């Protein structure tokens, strides 16, 4: 669940008294009231075996909803985390997609079916990958070596006052081969090489893609962003608490370079060079909190502004190479001029980084990024070494089976083509309409909530209402499917990966300076996720997340609202969180709030920040309240809106459900708790605390219910308990 920006046993009898104390069985209905129908938790889509009835829901609701699930669930060896919702759905999806792909690999009838089958077959054919060795990346590695030699000649010429074309000056012990003609050596440039590495799906130095112009959301422009790191975040290079990971990373880089043919001493020295250069990039990179500021991320300097910063990197030549060297010219990548950069300081700082990097250091860095980015398409030794870094960072015990990684690879490269088969297998047409009815109820809940916000004036309220009216909802799958007109070879996985990456890269850049396509999706339909796009003012709910336990046509309304309904409310609220509220109903980054209203909003958001910053995810490791602020606001409001929708949709019902002592309000909250039942390794918990804008699952649940008075009423929590504090936080 994301705000899209460019750039989831036995019950002790003794616990019954506790349950009754907090949640008494419903009383007999008054005359004329609704009938009460007794059902089991399983019948309505909840898991009675997950509950820890020894826990007090008013003290730790997450433990009450998930305690036995956590106790009895083991994290699979090939996963760093397991969740009752995301992971279980993903497991089913993987099995479905594997069945589809293996069938198509054996007997695909149409051209599209054969393309899917051949891509998958090439990925699982480890013998062919082994035989191919470094063949897929040899052209890039050769060009990196050529660039190193060019730069050595240039540097030697500059020192001696001679032209680089006059000879082969000092190369620090690595003289140019006598057979290498100077004209060939001089042909390579850093700008052309970086352009082609970006086209290959690699991201040295920086990255570039397309997206709507924040100040004119009808038009696509290019967005250039900081990038170029091999570790998950800048802090891994700059914060001493990650020193052990950084040291391991340096050894890992050396090991990969040795596999590529460098000697022991040379690979050790090269790894030091890689870490040195990446540390320099990290030092000029924005923090993740800084990247949450939409105004700070918008710097429309265009081609001319980039050219002014081309002291060490010729951006004009780079941008020209993107168009001139296109592998798919029919897409129409142009020599565009409209460019936003997410950080002017980063692109200014690149000059210093490149000035300080020797030809050998730059070559080591570029070689590493080729091997790092392509490791799963190279022989097993590279693949296994690549996983060791994942293992160190996440605590995952075992590499995923090859077939799972190949399903994921097809999903990445041919996502919507694969999605057609998934939708036909797993998504019922009636589900789309059912979800739309919940969408409408939750939207109506926010519409009714707006007049009750005493901190919002009428002018701002009118603008908020207008934005809500304009918000669009995309459910299930796109109306128009993407095409993938690139070649796929059955026995050349590495070339398939590079071809797919090039096509996707050029497809995105071809949109620059063209109108925004409001029908395009950023996720294929089998994805277990959802998102809100502030530039399009759209919520998108792929078929992949519209599966049990997030959504089931067999589940009760209360249960569906507590899970997918909360997700809907969450994504809707992203249009009004600390980031989304800076975009108007047309998707433009524009200040539409009255200053005093914005001040009061910020004060309420500050309460959420402070609340979540106090939560520990591990002893001594707390959440970053500012990094998670938007998601926390969305969680809190999403739950409130789901509850309001339940109240509205069940008003006047002739029959209500009682599930093993839980009324419909309590069922909604239990559903919320149980979709976030989760276990993860300590390593992943630390990683996510540093990098994930979402809070730990325990606090996504407990942090939200403690701020909603309806929860305390439903479970009869006394004031002063953890889930009913004397003071709480409310934004929306």
Walk me through this protein's architecture:
- Helix 5 (111-124) packs across helix 18 (402-413) and helix 12 (264-283) packs across helix 16 (359-374).
- The protein is α/β, with parallel strands linked by helices.
- The strands form five sheets. Strands 1-8-9-7 form a four-stranded mixed sheet, with helices on one face. Strands 4-5-6 form a three-stranded mixed sheet.
- Helix content is 51%, strand content 8%.
- The chain folds into three domains: 35-74 and 427-480 and 519-714, Collagenase (Catalytic Domain); 137-187, no CATH class; 188-397, Orthogonal Bundle (Neutral endopeptidase, domain 2).
- It is globular and about 95 Å long.
- Residues 3-30 and 163-185 have low confidence and may be disordered.
- It contains 29 helices and 13 strands.
- Strand 4 (206-213) and strand 5 (216-226) form a beta hairpin.
């Amino acid at each position: 669940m994301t705000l899209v920006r460019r750039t989831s046993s036995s019950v002790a009898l003794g616990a019954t008294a506790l349950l009754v104390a907090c949640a008494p069985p419903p009383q007999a209905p008054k005359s004329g009231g609704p009938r009460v129908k007794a059902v089991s938790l399983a019948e309505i889509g909840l898991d009675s075996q997950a509950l820890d009835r020894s826990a007090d829901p008013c003290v730790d609701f997450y433990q009450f909803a998930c305690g036995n699930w956590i106790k009895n669930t083991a994290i699979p060896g090939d996963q760093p985390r397991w969740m009752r919702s995301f992971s279980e759905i993903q497991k089913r999806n993987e099995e479905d997609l594997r069945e589809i792909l293996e069938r198509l690999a054996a007997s695909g009838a149409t051209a599209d079916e054969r393309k899917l089958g051949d891509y998958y077959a090439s990925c699982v054919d480890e013998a062919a990958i082994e035989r191919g060795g470094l063949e897929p990346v040899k052209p890039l590695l050769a060009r990196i070596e050529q660039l190193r030699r060019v730069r050595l000649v240039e540097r030697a010429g500059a020192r001696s006052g001679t032209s680089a074309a006059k000879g082969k000056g000092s190369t620090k012990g690595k003289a140019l081969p006598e057979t290498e003609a100077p004209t060939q050596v001089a042909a390579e440039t850093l700008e052309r090489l970086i352009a082609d590495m970006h086209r290959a799906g690699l991201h040295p130095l920086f990255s570039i893609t397309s997206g709507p112009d924040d100040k004119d959301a009808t038009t696509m422009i290019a967005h250039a962003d900081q990038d170029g790191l091999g570790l998950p975040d800048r802090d891994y290079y700059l914060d001493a608490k990650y020193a052990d990971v950084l040291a391991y990373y340096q050894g890992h880089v050396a090991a990969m370079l040795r596999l590529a043919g460098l000697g022991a001493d040379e690979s050790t020295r090269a790894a030091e060079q890689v870490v040195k250069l990446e540390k320099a990039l990290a030092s000029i990179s924005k923090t993740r909190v800084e990247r949450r500021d939409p105004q700070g991320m918008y710097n429309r300097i265009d081609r001319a502004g980039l050219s002014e910063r081309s002291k060490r990197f010729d951006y004009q030549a780079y941008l020209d190479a993107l168009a001139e060297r296109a592998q798919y010219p029919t897409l129409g990548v142009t020599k565009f001029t409209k460019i936003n950069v997410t950080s002017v300081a980063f692109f200014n700082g690149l000059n210093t980084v490149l000035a300080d990097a020797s030809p050998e250091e730059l070559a080591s860095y570029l070689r590493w990024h080729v091997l790092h980015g392509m490791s799963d398409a190279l022989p097993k030794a590279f693949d296994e070494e690549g996983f060791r870094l994942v293992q160190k960072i996440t605590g995952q015990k075992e590499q995923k089976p090859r077939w799972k990684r190949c399903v994921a690879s097809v999903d990445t490269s041919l996502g919507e083509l694969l999605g057609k088969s998934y939708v036909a297998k797993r998504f019922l047409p009636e589900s789309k309409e059912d979800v739309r009815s919940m969408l409408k109820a939750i939207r109506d809940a926010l519409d009714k909530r707006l007049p009750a916000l005493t901190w919002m004036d009428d002018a701002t309220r009118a603008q908020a209402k207008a934005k809500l009216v304009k918000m669009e909802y995309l459910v299930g799958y796109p109306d128009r499917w993407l095409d993938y007109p690139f070649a796929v070879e059955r026995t050349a996985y590495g070339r398939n990966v590079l071809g797919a990456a090039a096509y996707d890269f050029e497809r995105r850049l071809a949109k620059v300076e063209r109108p925004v396509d409001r029908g395009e999706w950023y996720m294929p339909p089998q994805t277990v996720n959802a998102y809100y796009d502030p530039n399009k003012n759209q919520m998108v709910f792929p078929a992949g997340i519209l599966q049990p336990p997030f959504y089931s046509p067999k589940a009760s309304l209360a249960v569906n609202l507590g899970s997918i309904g909360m997700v809907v409310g969450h994504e809707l609220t992203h249009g009004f969180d600390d980031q989304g509220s800076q975009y108007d109903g047309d998707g433009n980054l524009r200040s539409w709030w009255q200053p005093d209203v914005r001040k009061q909003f910020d004060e309420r958001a500050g309460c959420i920040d402070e609340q979540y910053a106090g939560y520990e995810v591990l002893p001594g490791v707390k959440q970053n309240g500012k990094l998670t602020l938007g998601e926390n606001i969305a969680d809190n409001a999403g739950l409130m809106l789901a509850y309001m929708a339940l109240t509205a949709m069940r008003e006047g019902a002739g029959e209500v459900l009682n599930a093993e002592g839980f009324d419909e309000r309590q069922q909604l909250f239990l559903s919320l708790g149980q979709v976030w039942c989760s276990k993860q390794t300590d390593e992943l918990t630390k990683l996510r605390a540093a990098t994930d804008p979402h809070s730990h699952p325990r606090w996504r649940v407990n942090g939200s219910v403690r701020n909603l008075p309806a929860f305390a009423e439903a479970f009869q929590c006394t004031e002063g308990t953890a889930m009913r504090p004397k003071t709480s936080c409310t934004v929306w």
